[in-house]
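User: Reviewer 2 asked us to show a designed sequence for the structure in our supplementary figure. I'm pasting the structure tokens here. Could you produce the per-position amino acids so we can include them in the response letter?
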């Protein structure tokens, strides 16, 4: 099982990626997770309990290794403003078994989207987490946390 740790202070020189305690030279880190939506495409209460789709991999700099699946496994994304942990130990990577923490708070039942793309070859970096926050009184809200 993989345990990746991605850490950055916000520039290429401070960016590292480790897998199971060993530095992992990579060209790209890619995570794309979206939970199911309601009938009109809007996020809804329940987060990952509603199912969804995910793709997560690391593209190694070593051509003999190629693309490495992050899950089943765990990844910590440590960026200047937040820490995101995503874990799924299901051998078939069933999305319903995924757990997500944002700044050490379990948001599994609130997360709607996670997108991370750190592409060193094309010099592209982006990342965010979107969380659905239902309220008993008043309108529900959707909050997006920029990571990169």
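Assistant: Here is a per-position design you can include in the supplement:
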């Amino acid at each position: 099982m993989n345990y990746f740790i991605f850490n950055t202070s916000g520039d290429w020189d401070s960016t590292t990626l480790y897998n199971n305690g060993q530095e992992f030279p990579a060209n790209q880190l890619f995570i794309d997770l979206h939970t199911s939506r309601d009938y009109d495409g809007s996020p809804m209460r329940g987060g990952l309990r509603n199912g969804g789709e995910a793709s997560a991999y690391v593209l190694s700099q070593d051509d003999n290794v190629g693309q490495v699946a992050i899950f089943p496994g765990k990844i910590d994304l440590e960026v200047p403003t937040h820490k995101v942990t995503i874990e799924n130990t299901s051998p078939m990577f069933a999305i319903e078994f995924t757990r997500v923490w944002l700044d050490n708070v379990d948001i599994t039942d609130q997360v709607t989207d996670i997108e991370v793309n750190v592409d060193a070859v094309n010099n592209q970096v982006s990342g965010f987490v979107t969380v659905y926050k239902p309220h008993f009184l008043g309108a529900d809200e959707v909050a997006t946390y920029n990571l990169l």
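For the response letter, you might also mention the following. DSSP finds no helices and 13 strands in the chain. The two ends are 26 Å apart (CA to CA).
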